[in-house]
Amino acid sequence: MKTPKTWFITGASRGFGLEITKAVLAAGDQVVATVRSKASELAAQFDNNPDLLVVTLDITQEEQAKRAALAAIERFGKIDILLNNAGYGLLSAVEEATAQEVRNNYEANVFGTLNVTRAVLPLMRKRRSGHVINVSSVGGLSGYVGWGIYGSTKFAIEGITEALALELAPLGIHATVVAPGFFRTDFLDYSSLTRTSNVIADYDDTVGAMRTFATEVNKKQPGDPKKLAQALIRLGNAENPPVHLPLGTDTLERFRAKTAAFEKEIAAWHDVITGTDHDDVAAQRELV
């Protein structure tokens, strides 16, 4: 029999977090599931499973994150996999979002992820073992109309995870950033998605169209959350996990289209791109 792994999953009350919690428990592993409120309700939903510890955590509060990590150690003795899933969407033109709305989105999606990561990594470093999995988005791989601010938080998660993977590898710890496309969760519901009250008419044909699209496509997205949860189980059990894991054909198509367009721009501007080095560097390159 395998030794159960202990997962620490933020934002476990619904959406991806809930589906992954279900899948992890069904696979025979242990879960520390964090929620912002009503912890007893989530525990009851799983019939107070002894392999599940539900902890109240506002990820924007670093001291709470530290207490939650210690509670995990007290209950299960270790954290094998940290899944930074908690966060929320902001649908807005870049100009429409207020400074406070931008800060709030970063507090949850970026600084909250860092709070939890800083709380858990010392425990993983002590054991020289672990896997940090950060949830990004297709919007963290390619910009979308109406998702510039939200996408920028996920671009940050992509870069943070890439650096983490390099820093943690010598310590026996893995880091992966998962970029889901559009999955059939409650992400586009008002419970999970913030829309700015400030609406600028000049963006009606772009961001306005995206607002309409987001309403119409809700609960019709192509991705299956249950299949995503199984993909995460496979990732958590991988001996050599990838640094990047895009999930969904829509994500893959979007990323390939971006890289193809990028290559065309490089070809068109190649002389400018390569013409900015000092003359001595350029001369040395010609001699090679």
Give a description of the structure.
This protein has helices at 15-26, 39-45, 62-76, 99-127, 148-168, 204-217, 225-236, 249-268, 270-273, 279-287; strands at residues 6-9, 30-35, 52-56, 81-84, 89-91, 130-135, 173-180, 193-195, 244-247. It is α/β, with parallel strands linked by helices and 288 residues long. It folds into two domains: 6-247, NAD(P)-binding Rossmann-like Domain (Rossmann fold), CATH 3.40.50; 249-288. The protein has a seven-stranded parallel β-sheet, with helices on both faces. Helix 1 (15-26) packs across helix 7, helix 3 packs parallel to helix 4 (99-127) and helix 4 (99-127) runs parallel beside helix 5 (148-168). It is globular and about 65 Å long. The relative contact order is 0.13. The mean pLDDT is 91.
The CATH architecture of the largest domain comes to 3-Layer(aba) Sandwich
Q: In the residues, how many domains can be counted?
A: 2
Structural class: alpha/beta
- The radius of gyration over CA amounts to 21 Å
CATH topology of the largest domain: Rossmann fold
Q: How many strand units?
A: 9
- Distance between the ends: 57 Å
Question: What is the CATH C-level name of the largest domain?
Answer: Alpha Beta
Strand content range: 5-15%
Q: What is the name of the CATH superfamily of the largest domain?
A: NAD(P)-binding Rossmann-like Domain
For the report, how would you describe the main beta sheet? 7 strands, parallel
The gross shape turns out to be globular
